[in-house]
Write a structure and sequence with these properties.
- With 411 residues, the protein is mainly beta.
- It has two domains: 167 residues, Immunoglobulin-like; 138 residues, Sandwich (Immunoglobulin-like), CATH 2.60.40.640.
- 13% of the residues lie in helices and 42% in strands.
- It contains four helices and 21 strands.
- A hairpin with a 3-residue loop joins strand 18 and strand 19.
- About 7% of the residues have low confidence.
């Protein structure tokens, strides 16, 4: 008898929940960044946010749905490895309202600290959606120019998100987060356009076109400056030597690059006194914690490889390499806590004694097979060449982004 009563109570509980679900239909919220998920600091970010009542008006349970309000804002989350970074104690600074489900806190539930956020912008208040109805709102905000770039290192992470908060009447706030990537370029103009351009007379029939043109100017100026900086070519020559003498002459045409560019260098071994058996070139980034925040004194720098070229070059007069800079890496930057630098790391294997090249007779018609020495005494040494890596056009970086610029939620 008890089992029957228990089963009846369970069925009644499920029926009650089902009735509540049918009386409170879900509203679908979709956020989409039309231009892509990558932006330059100081650039205007635009996002379209659509609210839809998916129930058909033909449905017997269809009814109008109400949303109390919705707002959106940008925030940047900072997370550090406790084994590598010693951060000062924050103390108990949590807002007394932070535990309430009816207070908008965009970083609620996120790891780390919120180091940057923009003022929230209200999208609407008291929105009513009839069955099958949709309404779209446009959110636009300048990406803060004084913030760090998006970065996922071994010790430190900076993550940007657009957070949209929505609330039904007498219900908890629901958060929709859209992650995106920020590239920082030094020298980005601020404000984005001169003050006199805002108050200059304009054609009322072309207001939208003029507004979009003004918004594009800071990005255009930044990209022009970026192209001018990375397009300058001036050959840099280096004599590569070790304790026994000159190994080769190395030439690289520039040391400032954009994301996505190829680093090209050439070696001339004919001018060397020491035979070079093999060389390798690696593209590396160095992540260094600033001294006040190091967990241990003299803490080692974290080095990450992003590509390597290896070549055997015995009896070779000249050689070259080409290393692409990935679009998804972070350009060099520096904050109070961490700095990121870039370099080319060279490694050479040289013979201690001269090695005679194979002799080929001038009139010889048959194929000659030359076998290398079975044992060679060698020396190895390395060399680091600092380079500078800058951002690229954010539209180009969007093609290789891990983010889609779109996300959705049902509330």
């Amino acid at each position: 008898m008890r089992i029957v009563i228990y089963i009846c109570l369970r069925i009644l509980n499920l029926v009650t929940k089902l009735c509540r679900f049918l009386t409170l239909q879900m509203i679908e919220v979709v956020a989409s960044m039309a231009r892509g998920p990558v932006f330059l600091a100081g650039e205007l970010m635009e996002c379209l946010i659509t609210f839809t009542n998916p129930m058909s008006h033909l449905s017997t349970s269809a009814s109008s749905e109400m949303l109390a309000w919705a707002s959106a804002q940008i925030h940047c989350q900072f997370h550090a490895s406790e084994n590598r970074v010693a951060l000062p104690a924050q103390g108990n600074k949590q807002d007394v309202q932070a535990e309430s489900d009816t207070v908008l806190i965009p970083s609620r539930g996120e790891r780390g600290q919120c180091v940057l956020d923009t003022p929230p912008k209200i999208l609407f208040c008291d929105l009513r959606l009839d069955p099958g109805e949709s309404k779209t709102y446009s959110y636009s905000e300048l990406v803060p120019i004084d913030g760090p770039p998006s970065f996922r290192g071994q010790s430190v992470k900076y993550v940007y998100k657009l957070t949209i908060g929505c609330q039904r009447v007498n219900s908890p706030i629901k958060l929709l987060r859209v992650p995106f990537r920020v590239l920082v370029l030094q020298g980005m103009p601020e404000p984005p356009f001169p003050q006199d351009e805002e108050v200059s007379p304009s054609n009322p029939f072309l207001e939208e076109e003029e507004a979009s043109r003004r918004d594009a100017r800071p990005l255009e100026r930044a990209l022009d400056m970026l192209m001018a900086t990375t397009s300058r070519r001036c050959p840099h020559m280096f004599n590569i030597t070790n304790m026994r003498g000159k190994v080769a002459k190395f030439c690289i045409f520039k040391i400032v690059y954009r994301l996505g560019e190829d680093i090209v260098g050439t070696f001339n071994f004919s001018e060397g006194d020491i035979p070079c058996l093999q060389y390798s070139v690696s593209l590396q980034s160095e992540e260094e914690i600033q001294q006040p925040y190091q967990r241990r004194p003299g803490q080692a720098v974290s080095v990450t490889g992003h590509g390597r070229h290896l070549e055997s070059c015995l009896h070779t007069a000249s050689s070259h390499f080409s290393l692409p800079i990935p679009l998804n890496v972070t350009p060099g930057f520096s904050t109070d806590i961490v700095s990121l630098r870039w370099r080319l790391h060279f490694e050479f294997v040289t013979a201690r004694e001269p090695m005679e090249p194979p002799t080929v007779l001038q009139n010889q018609s048959e194929v000659t097979v030359w076998s290398g020495a079975e044992h060679v005494d060698v020396d190895t040494f390395s060399w680091d060449l600092p380079i500078k890596v800058l951002p690229t056009n954010p539209a180009l970086a969007s093609y290789m982004s891990q983010f889609t610029g779109t996300n959705s939620i049902n509330i």
